[in-house]
Amino acid sequence: MIHAIFIIKDGICLFSRQYSKKRIKTHLFSGFLSALMQFAKEVSHKDLKKLIIEDDIFSLYLADNISFVIKHDEIKKSKLEKISQKISNKFFECFSADIKNWNGDISCFRKFDEEADKILEIKGGTALIEMEKFLQEKRIKRIEAEEEKTIKGKLTLIEMEKSLREKKKD
User: Fold this and answer.
1) Is the CB of residue 21 less than 8 Å from the CB of residue 124?
2) pLDDT tens for each residue of 48-73
C-alpha cells in the first residue's frame, strides 16, 4: 500500500499527498531527505534509492534533478518503478513550463492531487484511508487477542500457585 507521495526539488517539497493518518511534516522531511541524498552521493558516489526507518519504506526515483519519493509497504520493485515513472511523467507533462520558470512558489503544484490519485486509482484518497482503518482494526483485534492469552496464562499461573500453597498447608 502507498502511504504518501513527495516531489522534492532542491530540498523544497513541491508537492505532497499523504494517504494515511500518520502524517509527515513535508518541509522538514524534504530538507532532511535532500541532505541525506547529498550525503549518500558524497560518500558512495551513488544515488540514494531507498530509505527504511523501522516499518516505513521510502523509495526514491530521480528525474531531471527532481526527487519523486513514495512511502509504502512492501511492493514489488517493478510495480513501484511503474508507479514512479507514471507520476514523474505526468508531473512533467503538467508542470514542465512551471518548473523551467520556477520562482520558488509551490502553490501551482497543488492541483496535482487529482492526477496522483488517478495514477494510484484512488478516489479522493479515501480508499487508502479506509484500508488503513481496516488494518488498524485488525491490529487492535490481534493485540486484544494476545492480551487475552496473556491474561489467561497469568490466571492459570495464579491458580497453580494457589493450588501449590494449599498442598503445602496440608
Assistant:
1) no
2) 999 999 888 999 999 999 999 999 98
Cα(85)–Cα(70) distance, integer angstroms: 11
Give the CB-side neighbour count of residue 160, counting CA atoms within 13 A.
6
Cβ-proximal residues to 75 (8 Å cutoff; 6+ apart), any chain: 1, 2
- The CA distances from residue 170 to 109, 157, 165, 166, 167, in Å, are 81, 20, 9, 6, 5
For 2-123, which CATH class?
alpha beta
- How is the chain split into domains, by residue range? 2-123, 125-170
Burial class for 132, CB neighbours closer than 10 Å (0-12, 13-18, 19+): middle
Q: How far apart are the first and last CA of the chain?
A: 62
Segment 125-140, tens digit of pLDDT: 555 555 565 666 677 7
Residue 21's CB is within 10 A of a number of other CB atoms, namely: 10
| Residue 77 φ/ψ, nearest 5 degrees | -60, -40
| Rounded Cα–Cα distance for residues 92 and 15 (Å) | 13
Distance CA 18, CA 6 (A): 8
